[in-house]
Amino acid sequence: MKIIGILILLFFFSCSRSNESNKNFIYPPEWEPHKAIWTDFNFEPYNAVPNEQARLKLISILSRNIKTKVVYNNDSLMEFGKEKLKELSANIDSLEFIKLPYQSSWMRDPLMFISNGEQVKVLDFEWSCYGVYNCDEDQRGLLSNTLQDLKGYEKDSTGLYLEGGAIEVNSNTIIAYKALATQRNPDRKIEEVERILLDKLGKEQIIWLDEFPLIDKPMIKIDQFIGQGANGHIDVTTRFLNDTTILATVISENDRDKNSLLSHDYEVFQKNLAQLKAARQPNGEPYNIVTIEAPDYSLYEYSTIMTEPVYYGLLDEESREKISLGDSIRFVPALEYANFTITNGVVIASEYWKEGMPESEKDKDEKLRAILKKYFPNRDIVTYDALPINWGGGGIHCRTQQEPK
Questions:
Q1: Which residues have C-beta within 8 Å of that of residue 338, sequence separation ≥ 6?
Q2: Contact (Cβ atoms closer than 8 angstroms) between residue 209 and residue 233
Q3: Which GO biological process categories is it annotated with (predicted)?
């Protein structure tokens, strides 16, 4: 009888373990505990403004709070980076350096992790260079295969063309731009895209916003404004602060008429805000919407002449019909406050005000810090000047991807 009792216990224990292993995989909200956070440190010759110091500062801050996995492909650059990280008081013991045979920048986009509470898998999307560039020479899409081969991660493929920065989640809901989803996947109906995302990310519903701002559009934006961007990433503008609260970007009435780019994006953000206010949680309740005013774009633009090295070779035929070599252009960074990173014990965000700027810009910095402190009271709020990263077309959040526990 004793042996039978033991066998029965073992049977139920085995069933329990099997059920645990078969739990659905989900993409957890960013505020859930992390095992590690991924970032990169590679050459980025296409940046108009050097950003190595800003990227190293981000790595340093991360390393003091969580195990940080740094992907790189150039030994001499990484040795330089390691010395600078020591000067920045990084926690060297929490850093893991992973060399890949190719460049893999902007870690948010080619890499996502899903978890069932026991196991972590790589969630794989097809890569299309933000739906803009020729992908023949951009190998970021190989990252999931490489991690499967080198690090033993299992991979779950979606079959969709998408990037990590295009998706924002809480425990049960996804927010994304419909224009991005359809542009990246022109051969699929939006209902099919939605079904796949809900299934693979383990969510109940999607809030689709129709239109994204031009500040995130790559190359020519409007008139003579030009710059980098991710072509519709939600994490530039709209973030969950918890399961019931959404942070939404707006442009102030004082800033809206300062140039045509601000005027355009003012209207886009108002449409987004209306859609967010009309959205409902799965239980039918409205969301609490908190707004943050965007930085005044006009304070960060600079005028220059379109020359061959400054992106002209990346313009498509339609853009080249609008602007020629020798034309005057107004170059702008992809800057917004919503592009912050949440990880264990800390939220890392951008600050933009500098001495000589209007006090209204300083007020925006302070409002963001107050919002983050209110909604993440048990985490340190660390802000720093990440504008050099913005010039490359993204921000702090774009440079990181969390690996959940």
A1: 235, 236, 237, 238, 239, 247, 249, 292
A2: no
A3: putrescine biosynthetic process
Alpha helices in 29-155 (DSSP H): 52-63, 75-87, 143-151
Cβ atoms of residues 201 and 169 within 8 Å: yes
Residue 324 pLDDT class (50, 70, 90 cuts): confident
Give strand pairing partners of 72. Answer: 99
Q: Which CATH superfamily includes the segment(s) 25-404?
A: L-arginine/glycine Amidinotransferase; Chain A (3.75.10.10)
Report the C-alpha gap between 361 and 401 in whole angstroms: 29
Which residue ranges make up each domain of the chain? Answer: 25-404
Q: What pLDDT is recorded for position 309? A: 66
For range 264-272, the mean pLDDT:
98
CA 58 – CA 88 distance, rounded (Å)? 10
In sequence order, what DSSP letters do the residues of 134-180 get, joined into one string? -GGG--GGGHHHHHHHHH--EEEEEEEE--GGG-EE-SSEEEEEHHH
DSSP one-letter code for 280: B
Give the position of tokens 């313009």.
315
With 0-12 / 13-18 / 19 or more C-beta atoms within 10 angstroms meaning exposed / middle / buried, residue 76 is: exposed
Give CA–CA dist 268/228, Å, rounded. Answer: 19
What is the model's pTM? 0.92
What's the mean pLDDT when you consider all of the chain? 91
Per residue in 134-153, pLDDT (tens digit) is 677 778 888 988 988 888 99
Token pair for residue 24?
A: 């659905």
Contacts of 127 (CB under 8 A, 6+ apart): 110, 135, 138, 140, 141, 161, 163
Per-residue pLDDT tens over the stretch 225-262? 999 999 999 999 999 999 999 999 999 999 999 999 99
d(CA 174, CA 66): 26
Strand-pair category, 341-343 with 68-72: unpaired
> Across residues 21-46, what is the average pLDDT?
89
Phi, psi values for residue 80, rounded to 5°: -60, -45
pLDDT in tens, 362-400: 999 999 999 999 999 999 999 999 999 999 999 999 999
- Residue 307: the pLDDT is 80
At position 167, the amino acid (one-letter code) is I
